[in-house]
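Researcher: I've been going back and forth with a colleague about how RNA transcription, translation and transport factor protein might be arranged in three dimensions. Neither of us has a model we trust, so I'd like an independent prediction. The organism is Scytalopus superciliaris, in case that matters for your notes. Sequence below.
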Amino acid sequence: DETEFRNFIVWLEDQKIRHYKIEDRGNLRNIHSDDWPKSFEKYMKDVNCPFKIQERQETVDWLLGLAVRLEYGDNADKYKDSTPDGAKNTDNTAKNAEPLINLDVNNPDFKAGVMALANLLQIQRHDDYLVMLKERLTQDAIAKASQSKEGLPVALEKHILGFDTGDAVINEAAQILRLLHIEELRELQTKINEAIVAVQAIIADPKTDHRLGKVGR
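Model: Here is an independent structure prediction for RNA transcription, translation and transport factor protein. You can compare it with whatever you and your colleague have in mind.
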């Protein structure tokens, strides 16, 4: 719109660029005059704009750039420490990409999520949800989990998960976690059995020879 364009040029000169003295802006302010294009062309030469009046988009961009430079020059102390919105958004994006950085372990939603995951994978729960995490995330636990073990390949499709998360990849991960948990339970049971045998050996009657199946000398 021609009228809006002319008003825009006048506003830039009056408010930001201020190349002319106030009394010298009359011709540029007279936006309804037939001579306004000539006044505008003279104004462009006076501010050293490299574009022609027909190149309006380029002219607008250039004048806006000039206005920004002048605005910054007048308020350098105010703007020198400012952070562009784009940079802020980039920082936020980076933080969102790594949600564990700002994880609040005291958040009720986080606690509920840990308990729900324990129920989902049928892992023994503890009154303190942080204890469950420590048991799984200590350096010893991580080192143990990282140790390579030889064994027979397992066909996951033969093991029924018992629930459906709605995602095939998550279902497979849940099956793996459950099998690992079962392995740990079996290992624990073996250690319990060994402890029982050891205790029985200590408290047993020395006259009893369980290998012969009889009591006495």
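Researcher: What would you highlight for our discussion?
Model: I'd start with this: The first strand starts at residue 208 and ends at 209. After that, consider the following. The longest helix spans residues 168-203.
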